């Protein structure tokens, strides 16, 4: 089966849009052609001048399945992904029961989620304080690596009893093992002692406002953890990746480390690029996350880091609480921390980044597709529009403007700090391995593929 997509543009250098035709053969890209080049095809589709990007990979989502499916499940999460132009998600190991901390748990999870996946997915494996209590924890981690996890996740500060944090000393032992197996380690990088001291001080004052919560998670917590990880990088040579960085000073430490030749990198999330503590004050729990949004200076530093390449990629950290109950508990301290964002990742980066001239289209492709594909070890089949690559496409109508409404999103619990924000660029279609999994037509009608064609992709690229 050959399908020719025509009347479209693909991205080139800088902000270049290159008119092209794409021949899809089965699940792969058969050819990238110039407009008008004659080729035989079974079907031809006119994309009405849309911009076709390599499929977006969201490297950090919490889809909670199985175990916390009142918050999200794999069907709703991946439908939202498809509607947002995301063609592959990488799900975190900590927010399901059982957590993905052994090959056996991974298999249990896979049987439940694989039939529900509307887009491709990879799985992070995890090493928690709980796991380290088992005498055979090293075998567990080896088992995860053999099962094809995308990378390993640890927390230097965790609020979850089912997935506790590790000390820097424990982290070092884990890093020695993962380095031997050639796997990167993603770290929730906030210093536990710094946060505990700041939180005690805020609670002792009796504070219960969004800014009291922010004061309990100061930038110093991220900065101190980044220093710890730089030291661990020096000691072990481990490939360490700081997830959801929010502090520009912490990012500076990552940049310095890399100039020393250390394999340290960082990702950030749209909420840190869009909002500051002034918005947290206004929006309250709706914008509660960990780390917390920071100052205007941090926000600007993160945008700069995106354009210069100091930040490797952007992920949503999609994490939804039960709405409205878990976000309105009566106290900022007990309100659920996390925002759903998989569907808005590409639209916000396109609108606030490319359309506003903060980053080029070329950088957008790097930070949403190419860099995560390489990071998760699937850069030879995903992340590029080239012959032989998976036919994963995020198709954008660049000229369409729209307004974000939580009730129109597709994940399970619909709330967003972006409510009422006007965005430029609307997702028109999403393709996963040669199948159109989502279409939004000219009058806004939305259609999802009937079957859920998403597949488990192992590190290294086999599925
Ligand atoms: Zn997360």
Can you tell me about this structure?
It is built from 14 helices and 17 strands. The longest helix is centred in the middle third of the chain and has 18 residues, at 219-236. Helix 4 (137-147) packs across helix 5 (168-181), helix 5 (168-181) packs across helix 8 and helix 8 (219-236) packs parallel to helix 9 (248-259). By secondary structure, the chain is of the alpha/beta class. The protein starts with a strand and ends in a 15-residue tail after the last strand. Strands 3-2-1-4-14-15-16-17 form an 8-stranded mixed β-sheet. A 6-stranded parallel β-sheet has the order 8-9-10-11-12-13. Strands 5-6-7 form a 3-stranded parallel β-sheet. Strand 6, helix 2 and strand 7 (120-123) form a beta-alpha-beta unit. It has a domain at 54-375: Metal-dependent hydrolases (TIM Barrel, Alpha-Beta Barrel), CATH 3.20.20. The structure holds zinc ion.
Write a concise keyword list for the protein shown above.
eight-stranded mixed sheet; six-stranded parallel sheet; 14 helices; about 475 residues; binds zinc ion
The CATH class assignment of the domain at 54-375 is Alpha Beta
Strand order of the largest sheet: 3-2-1-4-14-15-16-17
CATH superfamily of the domain at 54-375: Metal-dependent hydrolases
Biggest beta-sheet profile: 8 strands, mixed
Mean pLDDT: 97
CATH topology name of the domain at 54-375, in short, is TIM Barrel
Count of DSSP strands: 17
Topology readout:
Elements: E1 2-11, E2 17-25, E3 28-33, E4 43-54, E5 56-61, H1 74-83, E6 86-91, H2 103-113, E7 120-123, E8 125-126, H3 129-132, H4 137-147, E9 152-155, H5 168-181, E10 185-188, H6 192-204, H7 210-215, H8 219-236, E11 240-242, H9 248-259, E12 264-268, H10 270-274, H11 277-283, H12 296-308, E13 313-314, H13 345-355, H14 361-375, E14 393-403, E15 422-432, E16 435-440, E17 446-448
Parallel strand pairs: 1-4, 5-6, 6-7, 8-9, 9-10, 10-11, 11-12, 12-13
Antiparallel strand pairs: 1-2, 2-3, 4-14, 14-15, 15-16, 16-17
Helix pairs in contact: 4-5, 5-8, 8-9
The protein binds zinc ion.
